[in-house]
Input
Amino acid sequence: MELLTVTGQAFDAEHITDQILEHAPTWLRLMKPLVVRAIATLADKLPPDLLALLTDVSEGMDDESIALWQGKLTKIVNDKIDIPKVPEWIEQYIFGTVIGLLLNFARGGQALTLSSQS
Output
């Protein structure tokens, strides 16, 4: 997969997806290509301060901030990706779950690596 660049850092959607799916339910693991696409959609949408929280194990974001970001990022992904023959509410649930798992890295205690070259 092509490496994207976000704020001067390599951004490998497949590598990030692998980290997210370690904590995902089985049904979501079966949708890995869709998850990779959702993460790639976010590549140029993540502000540097949020990216810093995702990649720094010591920083942490509160539940209220995570919920706010989850809503915003889920809408971005859901507006860009359409899953044929799947109702909108199911798409919203799938992408909300992906974004929630991604944002768990912003809680602190875990650090997300943006590429295997990080």
About this structure: The longest helix spans residues 63-80. Helices lie at 13-21, 26-29, 32-41, 48-55, 63-80, 88-103. The first strand starts at residue 4 and ends at 6.
